[in-house]
Write a structure and sequence with these properties.
Elements (H helix, E strand, L loop, with lengths): L1 H8 L1 H30 L8 H26 L7 H33 L14 H18 L3 H4 E3 L9 E2 L4 E3 L4 H42 L11 H32 L4 H11 L1 H12 L2 H16 L1
Antiparallel strand pairs: 1-3, 2-3
Helix pairs in contact: 2-3, 2-10, 3-4, 3-10, 4-5, 4-7, 4-8, 7-8, 8-9, 8-10
């Protein structure tokens, strides 16, 4: 296949993609380690600490699985059997779905934290992290059921000769489903995406409205002794808003490229661009979260001073 050969022989594409995965794995590893150390040291957890830690763990595992899958896309490989193909592709899709679920839940939790005491959302501020864990677990189980068709559709095709199969890696391909099955699973996925992204949009709109109201109040109080400086909750909200915007932007680009792939199935460039953009959020998000943690910033500053003094 031309797609195979061009992806294998283009060393620049391979280097850029594996560099992206390496940077993302490192960032999410340090973010997860930071939250584990916070828990061990007895720091009081915030409501968003568990979702952020779970998001970093999800992205870490997703990028590790993708790095293993990428070896069968860009590098000559001995070939996988059906079990390995089904396990890797199914696990990867579950992790991507969990990333979407956790990101949506994180935006809702941040909206709850920012809400005033008079709001109907205020009563959820003191909920236990166990409630958050149950919500994430429920969303994960539902998505596992929606993606279960991959256990039947993914097969090992080391010598792919039929044009009906959809290319996944050198060893794995996707068997075309019947019209009824494709329609059913596509509908379930659309419902899931619309529901979760709608939660993001609603919570984002709510947070923007609260921030605008706070800015007007701060401008009104500028002449008094009160400082209009943003609180930690508002700075965290701005971070979540930036990540939500970036997530939606990457999702739009991913959808555009996916549509273009349906029109130009033999074009390896669009396939690579989709791989690159679909992991951009997992790579960037960890560094954005770390940039808002004072403990990490102070640690990096002390490390820089030590290096300079030496």
């Amino acid at each position: 296949m031309s797609k195979k050969s061009r992806l294998q022989t283009n060393s620049n594409i391979r280097t850029i993609f594996f560099s992206e995965l390496g940077i993302g794995i490192s960032g999410n590893y340090f973010l997860l380690l930071f939250h584990i150390l916070k828990f061990i040291c007895g720091h009081r957890p915030r409501l968003t600490d568990l979702p952020i830690a779970l998001l970093s763990l999800t992205h870490l595992l997703m990028l590790l699985v993708m790095q293993f899958i990428a070896t069968d896309i860009f590098i000559s490989w001995m070939g996988w059997d059906d079990i390995i193909c089904k396990f890797l592709v199914y696990l990867y899709r579950i992790l991507r779905g969990l990333s979407l679920c956790t990101t949506s839940l994180l935006s809702v939790l941040q909206a709850i934290i920012l809400s005033p005491r008079s709001s109907c959302l205020a009563k959820f501020k003191h909920k236990s992290p166990h409630h958050v864990s149950c919500a994430i677990l429920l969303l994960s189980v539902l998505y596992m059921l929606i993606s279960s068709h991959l256990l039947l559709s993914i097969i090992a095709t080391p010598n792919l000769t039929m044009n009906d199969f959809i290319y996944v890696t050198q060893s794995c391909s996707l068997v075309p489903m019947t019209y009824l099955m494709k329609r059913m699973f596509s509908t379930l996925l659309v419902i899931r995406d619309v529901f979760l992204i709608s939660l993001m949009v609603i919570s984002t709109w709510y947070m923007v409205a609260l921030l605008c109201r706070h800015r007007k109040q701060a401008q009104h109080l500028q002449g008094t002794s009160l400082s209009p400086k943003a609180s930690p909750e508002q700075r965290a909200t701005q971070t979540i808003l930036m990540l939500m915007s970036f997530f939606v932007l990457m999702s739009i680009f991913d959808s555009i490229i996916s549509c273009s792939r349906t029109m130009f199935l033999s074009d390896p460039t669009s396939y690579y661009m989709q791989l690159f953009l679909s992991h951009m959020y997992a790579t960037v998000s960890s560094f954005v979260f770390m940039s808002t943690e004072k403990l990490i910033i102070n640690f990096l500053r002390s490390m820089c001073k030590t290096v300079i003094n030496v």
